[in-house]
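Recall the central idea of this unit: under ordinary conditions, the amino acid sequence of a chain determines the structure it adopts. In this exercise we apply that idea directly, starting from the sequence alone.
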Amino acid sequence: MDRAGRVSVAPPLEWDDRQEPMRQVTLDDVAAMAGVSAKTVSRVVNNDARVSPETRERVKQAVQRLGYRPNLAARSLATARSHLIGTFTPTTGLSHFFGELTHGAIRACRAHDYNLVVEEFDMRAPGVARIYRDGLRHLHCDGLILPSPVCDDMELLDILDEDEVRYVRISPAKEISRSPALISDHAAGARTVAQHFWSLGHRKFGVLTGLPYQASSPIRRDGFIDGIIRAGGSIDDIRVIEMGALLNETDTACGGIDLGREAGARFLRGSDRPDAIFAYNDEFAAGIVIQARNLGISVPDELGVAGFDDSDAARLCWPPITSVRQPIAEIAAQAVAMLAKPEAWTRETVICPVELIVRGSTCREAGLS
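Accordingly, the structure predicted from this sequence is:
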């Protein structure tokens, strides 16, 4: 009321794209903006086919403008789905792979209005079937992402099949056709490293394998050996150090770089050392580079080193490490999509391409690339 006694009436509120609403946006808000019923909005949000393309597009625009987020609890009750996806990660961070896979899955779940549930397991004694029974089973996840070595736990797979829980396996080695599987082309990546080394004039090689329970380890080892033989080399020119045997012979803590340093000492001490080493992953490769520096061996002038994964360890080491890039985040996103959309779940095996990233550990000209 002003001084003259007049009552001022505020104009009706309008949606302003520049401002966040003070309360949570509801289905009714979206329906009002799109000019449809709340039931129609619900159908669009839940990907119901009974909505015309024009109406669907109008609702999607309203959802985007208002920043509407579905109520997952309500959706779960309505659709008998939990909107949860589960996965496993090791208690010890042996590799970049698991961190990238988990973060990629988190981002993909968010895009599909899902949440990711992560359980830890011990690499040395997985026991994932028990972990599932005691925890994830009670959450009624709509599906599970199973990385190696969890994906080859037959007891767990039997329980999931019995519970009728869908799952996608990442790089399995056993019964690959049993379920959807996403597998990086490990052999092709290792052959590419071999060809790269050969083209640089290297003729004596070392291979450091992964840990015994890493299914891709023998595939990468054999792919590298095959690449050298195809190039014109001999298996007699390749020395292999198996990480499992190294662990049995040393008290070295299970840190990737520490294990690489120990392997590097074994490769590089003595006159009959290799002039190029391919390591199972970038952490092992970084340890070899550090050990070479400690022994006064120049990388890449006297020794070429390459890893796998294209992780931070490869980019931050000096010199930066040549590595095989596998699309870990994209693999996670594809796995989430297969589980979030039941119609996309098939028992197919998808081979994911890899790419060699050349850096200063093999070519001085590559510098910081």
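DSSP finds 14 helices and twelve strands in the chain.
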